[in-house]
Write a structure and sequence with these properties.
Blueprint lengths: L2 E5 L2 E4 L4 E8 L6 E8 L6 E7 L5 E3 L7 E6 L4 E6 L8 E9 L13 E2 L3 E6 L1
């Protein structure tokens, strides 16, 4: 069974950067997709960024384009999300999720089979 373990939660000031990690344990297909989601209080969960583990193709939500980087280290089975210029509106619980197969950028939240435990990101103004 694949398990996703997240790290990197923390409280930062507006304008700071933060890197979140998502490490996978257990066997899984190499051609997989890993995504980051977030959920702020009173709001629905929304996609943040996605990456394919085999080729490193990536995509970002509009609100993250230009100020975030998703990357992966295949040897460590770890995906990272680095967010820059964080603002209070970025405060949320961040989750990593994974799925096997080819689909990544055209699939919804329900298509992800494995989820991390969530990491709280709090940005103070």
């Amino acid at each position: 069974r694949v398990q996703l373990v997240q790290s990197g939660a923390g409280s930062v000031h507006a304008g700071d950067s933060l890197t979140l990690s998502c490490a996978a344990t257990g066997e899984y297909y190499s051609r997989s997709c890993v995504a980051w989601f977030r959920q702020a209080p009173g709001k629905e969960r929304e996609g943040v960024a996605r990456i394919t583990l085999t080729y490193g193709n990536m995509d970002y939500a509009d609100f993250m384009k230009g100020r975030s980087t998703i990357s992966r280290n295949k040897a460590l089975d770890t995906v990272f999300l680095t967010m820059n210029s964080l603002q209070p509106e970025d405060t949320a619980m961040y989750y990593c999720a994974a799925r096997a197969g080819n689909g990544c950028f055209n699939v919804g939240e329900s298509d992800f089979s494995y989820w991390g435990q969530g990491t709280q990101v709090t940005v103070s103004g």
